[in-house]
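It is worth pausing here to work through a concrete case rather than discussing structure prediction in the abstract. The textbook approach is simple: state the sequence, then state the predicted structure, then interpret. We follow exactly that order.
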Amino acid sequence: MKNAKYALSVAVAVVVAAGPVPVSHAAEYFFNTTGQDSFTTNSITTPWASLSKLNSLSLLPGDKVYLRAGQSFAGNIYLDPTKANGSSQTTGNLINPITLSTYATPASPGGSFLTTQRATINAGNSFGIYGYNNAGFDISNFTLNGSGATTNTASGIGFYTDLAGGVKMQRLNIDNVKVSGFKEGIAIGGFNGNTGYRDVRITNATAHDNRSVGIITYAENRNVNQNVYVGNSVAYNNFGDPASTGNTGSGIVLGSVNGATIERSVAYSNGKNNTPSEGPVGIWTYDSNNVTIQYNESYANRTSGGDGGGFDLDQNVTNSVMQYNYSHDNDGAGFLLYDGDGVTTNNGNSGRNENNVVRFNISQNDGRKGNYPASGVFVGGNVRNLQVYHNTIFTSDVSNRTVPAIKVEGGSNLSFYNNILQTTGGERLLSVSSTATGVSFIGNDYWSTGGTFSVSWNGTNYTSLNAWLTAVTGQERVNNVIVGMNVDPKLVGAGLGPTLNDANLLSTLVAYQLQPASPLVSGGVNLTLSPFLLNIGGQDFYALPITTANAQFVGVTSAVPEPGITTLALGAAMLGLLRRRRPI
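Step two, the predicted structure:
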């Protein structure tokens, strides 16, 4: 699927300025386009005016720089750690960061000048804010505009390090920024062995209409960047570079991280200009360990080549989990697990995708383009020790294409428990290739509406559950008792899940709750008990608690809707929700 390395061209513009201005420790600086760079002192009443003046400062830990909210500043902010005359470095630290933010006139004398309103940086063809071989920054409340996705050659916000010795540059907090019209929206990474960043937080960020990617971390080796968090952020219309030979056009990508979370975020309408066979995904990770991707929505992501899916644990990803996510209407797979090389790299560690979990997710009408891969859940390549349980997958008819709910084309020791697989129009429920070994399906429900039951196993198609289980021993059995089902799951509104555009609204997705009469409310296997003994997370998709006593359900929840919710009422409610939503 993916190239494990995301190559960034790091072009640093030379900032020409007068000699650095002498400053004192823990100073505050104010910038206002109506101010004057010639002021000999700086204050809220005597602000400087330009970003070139800002770039002449040698900032120290604890210093704070404020741009006037509501104003537009032309140029770039270059956080240069090595001033030409050898003066003090522009770098903060974990305890005393350098702050870049905004201010407004206090509403009353003595009132606070701090504000969450944004200032605008018009960066032209270059970067918006860039730091090289430094960290220790808190950056907030900016709109950064590049010249456009087809012309800009840099990052809206970029931090890059190539120091030797496995250095971890520490603390980058980026909050309430909007970045568009650049090559990359927000890009943080290093390229010198195990050198990278630690303690990175990106929150309330919007990255849209950039060429190559919305938000990304990267490094030369695997598992380099540590303690990375992306939350409450949005990436859309990052269409990709049609001239690139590698995948471009993803929304949010964490590359080469060890300990990370992406949550409460949305990625949509990315990737349409990607042309290679390896393609973009809305939200994904590669070359990483211990990553949690949860409570996100990823939809309508596109590709002109391969992939174009919703979520992905890709090459060299280990000990990671995708949970409580909603994927829908993507060109490619809703949830992708893939590793293409299987080599031993980086201090002898296995290069495989292994020991990962996919649970309590919803996939609705993914695989729309029918390209490779196309399914609700797709597993391929050198994937091993994978657990996929308590997911609900709905796939409607895709004309002249085969889009199974689950497709397995490789891997070993793969377990699928208590999932709902529902298709319409004769779409295949399940496809498992002979290249996959140690595959186990237990406690799943297979339901096809408007067409014949269809399961493909090692190249043979079976048109009933009984025919499949008779021919293939060991599947859907516990202690030789059949536990697989071919029953109507009686979902409240299969296929009627709306576009939310707000990950905080996931609990409103009642379409995939069960009707009171559903046989799946207590029809599955209890994964918390022997022989499974799994820790399944303590809560379902709707944040309802799961205990040993109530864990025997199939799909994402045992919840039933509030009294009076019918499929017709659900449709009306979803239409109303769509009408209330506003574009981001």
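Step three, interpretation. The chain has a mean pLDDT of 90. The longest helix spans residues 567-580.
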